[in-house]
Here is the input.
Amino acid sequence: MSPQPAPAPMLIACALGIEQFALRAGERGGAGGPVTVLRTGMGPRAAERSVTRVLADPALAGAAVLATGFCAGLAPGMHPGDLVVAEETRDPAGTVPCVGTDLLVKELVRTVPGRTVHTGPLTGSDHVVRGQERSDLLTTGAIAVDMESAATLLSAVRTGERPVAAVRVVVDAPEHELVRIGTLRGGISAFRVLRTVLPAFYEWHRSLLLPRR
Here is the structure.
Protein backbone atom coordinates (compact mmCIF):
# COMPACT_ATOMS: atom_id res chain seq x y z
CA MET A 1 0.00 0.00 0.00
CA SER A 2 1.21 3.48 -0.80
CA PRO A 3 1.67 5.77 2.21
CA GLN A 4 -1.19 8.13 2.99
CA PRO A 5 -0.43 11.84 2.49
CA ALA A 6 0.14 13.83 5.67
CA PRO A 7 -2.94 15.75 6.86
CA ALA A 8 -2.95 19.34 5.63
CA PRO A 9 -2.09 21.88 8.33
CA MET A 10 -4.08 24.92 9.40
CA LEU A 11 -2.78 28.24 10.68
CA ILE A 12 -5.10 30.27 12.90
CA ALA A 13 -3.83 33.84 13.26
CA CYS A 14 -4.85 36.37 15.88
CA ALA A 15 -3.24 39.61 17.06
CA LEU A 16 -3.57 39.81 20.82
CA GLY A 17 -2.52 37.70 23.75
CA ILE A 18 -6.06 37.64 25.11
CA GLU A 19 -7.34 36.35 21.75
CA GLN A 20 -4.71 33.61 21.71
CA PHE A 21 -5.59 32.74 25.32
CA ALA A 22 -9.30 32.47 24.44
CA LEU A 23 -8.57 30.17 21.50
CA ARG A 24 -6.25 27.93 23.50
CA ALA A 25 -8.75 27.80 26.34
CA GLY A 26 -11.21 26.34 23.85
CA GLU A 27 -8.85 23.82 22.28
CA ARG A 28 -10.13 20.29 21.95
CA GLY A 29 -9.38 17.41 19.63
CA GLY A 30 -11.01 17.03 16.24
CA ALA A 31 -8.91 19.08 13.83
CA GLY A 32 -8.41 17.70 10.34
CA GLY A 33 -4.64 18.14 10.58
CA PRO A 34 -1.93 19.94 12.55
CA VAL A 35 -3.11 23.32 13.87
CA THR A 36 -0.88 26.28 14.74
CA VAL A 37 -2.31 29.24 16.67
CA LEU A 38 -0.16 32.27 15.85
CA ARG A 39 -0.14 35.54 17.74
CA THR A 40 0.94 38.10 15.14
CA GLY A 41 0.96 41.27 17.21
CA MET A 42 -1.26 44.27 16.62
CA GLY A 43 -1.65 46.05 13.30
CA PRO A 44 -1.35 45.18 9.61
CA ARG A 45 2.45 45.39 9.44
CA ALA A 46 2.92 43.04 12.36
CA ALA A 47 0.40 40.62 10.83
CA GLU A 48 2.15 40.72 7.45
CA ARG A 49 5.57 40.08 8.96
CA SER A 50 4.45 37.26 11.25
CA VAL A 51 2.33 35.40 8.72
CA THR A 52 4.93 35.65 5.96
CA ARG A 53 7.67 34.38 8.30
CA VAL A 54 5.66 31.45 9.64
CA LEU A 55 4.40 30.32 6.24
CA ALA A 56 7.97 30.15 4.96
CA ASP A 57 8.25 26.92 6.97
CA PRO A 58 7.97 23.99 4.50
CA ALA A 59 5.83 22.17 7.08
CA LEU A 60 3.12 24.78 6.45
CA ALA A 61 3.22 24.60 2.66
CA GLY A 62 -0.37 24.81 1.44
CA ALA A 63 -1.71 25.36 4.96
CA ALA A 64 -5.21 26.75 5.27
CA VAL A 65 -5.14 30.15 6.98
CA LEU A 66 -7.93 31.56 9.13
CA ALA A 67 -7.72 35.04 10.65
CA THR A 68 -9.69 35.54 13.84
CA GLY A 69 -10.02 37.62 16.98
CA PHE A 70 -12.06 40.69 17.84
CA CYS A 71 -13.42 43.38 15.52
CA ALA A 72 -15.54 46.51 15.45
CA GLY A 73 -18.98 46.16 13.93
CA LEU A 74 -20.01 48.86 11.49
CA ALA A 75 -23.72 48.23 11.01
CA PRO A 76 -26.43 49.51 13.37
CA GLY A 77 -27.93 46.72 15.43
CA MET A 78 -24.68 44.81 15.91
CA HIS A 79 -23.85 43.78 19.47
CA PRO A 80 -20.76 42.59 21.35
CA GLY A 81 -20.53 38.84 20.96
CA ASP A 82 -21.98 38.80 17.44
CA LEU A 83 -19.91 36.89 14.89
CA VAL A 84 -18.66 38.15 11.53
CA VAL A 85 -17.78 35.71 8.75
CA ALA A 86 -15.97 37.55 5.98
CA GLU A 87 -16.97 36.99 2.38
CA GLU A 88 -13.80 38.89 1.50
CA THR A 89 -11.17 40.96 3.27
CA ARG A 90 -10.07 44.28 1.86
CA ASP A 91 -7.68 47.11 2.54
CA PRO A 92 -5.68 49.54 0.34
CA ALA A 93 -3.21 46.76 -0.51
CA GLY A 94 -5.84 44.47 -2.02
CA THR A 95 -8.94 42.31 -1.72
CA VAL A 96 -8.91 38.59 -0.92
CA PRO A 97 -12.00 36.38 -1.39
CA CYS A 98 -12.68 33.91 1.41
CA VAL A 99 -13.32 30.19 1.01
CA GLY A 100 -16.14 28.19 2.59
CA THR A 101 -18.11 31.12 4.01
CA ASP A 102 -21.43 29.26 3.95
CA LEU A 103 -19.97 26.28 5.80
CA LEU A 104 -18.43 28.51 8.47
CA VAL A 105 -21.78 30.23 9.02
CA LYS A 106 -23.55 26.87 9.32
CA GLU A 107 -20.99 25.51 11.78
CA LEU A 108 -20.90 28.67 13.89
CA VAL A 109 -24.68 28.70 14.19
CA ARG A 110 -24.48 25.10 15.40
CA THR A 111 -21.46 25.62 17.66
CA VAL A 112 -22.47 28.95 19.22
CA PRO A 113 -26.29 28.80 19.35
CA GLY A 114 -28.10 32.02 20.03
CA ARG A 115 -25.39 34.26 18.58
CA THR A 116 -26.06 36.35 15.50
CA VAL A 117 -23.73 35.63 12.57
CA HIS A 118 -23.19 38.41 10.01
CA THR A 119 -21.62 37.91 6.58
CA GLY A 120 -20.11 40.46 4.23
CA PRO A 121 -16.86 42.28 3.47
CA LEU A 122 -14.41 42.77 6.34
CA THR A 123 -12.26 45.86 5.92
CA GLY A 124 -8.84 46.61 7.34
CA SER A 125 -7.52 49.65 9.17
CA ASP A 126 -4.21 50.62 10.75
CA HIS A 127 -5.91 52.23 13.76
CA VAL A 128 -8.96 51.96 15.99
CA VAL A 129 -12.02 53.23 14.12
CA ARG A 130 -14.59 55.44 15.85
CA GLY A 131 -17.54 57.71 15.19
CA GLN A 132 -17.86 59.19 11.71
CA GLU A 133 -15.09 57.04 10.29
CA ARG A 134 -17.12 53.99 11.24
CA SER A 135 -20.10 55.42 9.32
CA ASP A 136 -17.89 56.19 6.32
CA LEU A 137 -16.61 52.62 6.17
CA LEU A 138 -20.16 51.29 6.31
CA THR A 139 -20.95 53.19 3.09
CA THR A 140 -18.28 51.12 1.30
CA GLY A 141 -20.33 47.98 1.94
CA ALA A 142 -18.10 46.63 4.71
CA ILE A 143 -19.87 45.26 7.78
CA ALA A 144 -16.92 45.19 10.21
CA VAL A 145 -13.36 46.41 10.58
CA ASP A 146 -10.21 45.14 12.26
CA MET A 147 -6.49 45.80 11.92
CA GLU A 148 -5.07 42.40 10.93
CA SER A 149 -7.42 40.17 8.90
CA ALA A 150 -6.86 41.79 5.51
CA ALA A 151 -3.08 41.85 5.94
CA THR A 152 -3.10 38.26 7.21
CA LEU A 153 -5.02 36.85 4.25
CA LEU A 154 -3.20 38.93 1.65
CA SER A 155 0.15 37.78 3.05
CA ALA A 156 -1.09 34.19 3.12
CA VAL A 157 -2.12 34.06 -0.54
CA ARG A 158 1.05 35.85 -1.61
CA THR A 159 3.13 33.01 -0.18
CA GLY A 160 1.28 30.39 -2.22
CA GLU A 161 -2.12 29.06 -3.24
CA ARG A 162 -4.14 28.11 -0.17
CA PRO A 163 -7.69 28.37 1.26
CA VAL A 164 -8.23 31.39 3.50
CA ALA A 165 -11.03 32.70 5.70
CA ALA A 166 -11.69 35.26 8.42
CA VAL A 167 -14.03 35.00 11.39
CA ARG A 168 -14.22 37.81 13.94
CA VAL A 169 -16.16 38.43 17.13
CA VAL A 170 -17.67 41.89 17.57
CA VAL A 171 -16.28 43.61 20.65
CA ASP A 172 -17.77 47.02 19.94
CA ALA A 173 -20.41 48.38 17.58
CA PRO A 174 -22.07 51.72 16.71
CA GLU A 175 -24.26 51.68 19.81
CA HIS A 176 -21.57 50.01 21.95
CA GLU A 177 -18.32 51.88 21.27
CA LEU A 178 -15.24 51.06 23.33
CA VAL A 179 -15.21 54.48 24.94
CA ARG A 180 -18.62 53.96 26.53
CA ILE A 181 -19.71 52.45 29.83
CA GLY A 182 -20.38 48.76 29.35
CA THR A 183 -17.20 48.11 27.40
CA LEU A 184 -16.00 45.59 29.97
CA ARG A 185 -19.23 43.63 29.67
CA GLY A 186 -18.94 43.64 25.89
CA GLY A 187 -15.34 42.46 26.09
CA ILE A 188 -16.24 39.58 28.38
CA SER A 189 -19.05 38.57 26.03
CA ALA A 190 -16.73 38.62 23.02
CA PHE A 191 -14.07 36.63 24.90
CA ARG A 192 -16.56 33.93 25.84
CA VAL A 193 -17.70 33.59 22.23
CA LEU A 194 -14.14 33.44 20.87
CA ARG A 195 -13.42 30.65 23.35
CA THR A 196 -16.11 28.47 21.74
CA VAL A 197 -15.46 28.84 18.00
CA LEU A 198 -12.67 26.32 17.37
CA PRO A 199 -14.97 23.36 16.57
CA ALA A 200 -16.44 25.39 13.69
CA PHE A 201 -12.94 26.17 12.43
CA TYR A 202 -12.04 22.48 12.58
CA GLU A 203 -15.13 21.53 10.55
CA TRP A 204 -14.23 24.16 7.95
CA HIS A 205 -10.71 22.75 7.76
CA ARG A 206 -11.94 19.17 7.46
CA SER A 207 -14.28 20.11 4.63
CA LEU A 208 -11.32 21.42 2.64
CA LEU A 209 -9.66 17.98 2.86
CA LEU A 210 -12.63 16.07 1.44
CA PRO A 211 -12.31 14.93 -2.19
CA ARG A 212 -14.32 17.05 -4.60
CA ARG A 213 -17.02 15.31 -6.62
About this structure: Strands lie at 10-14, 35-39, 64-73, 83-91, 94-97, 117-124, 144-146, 164-172.
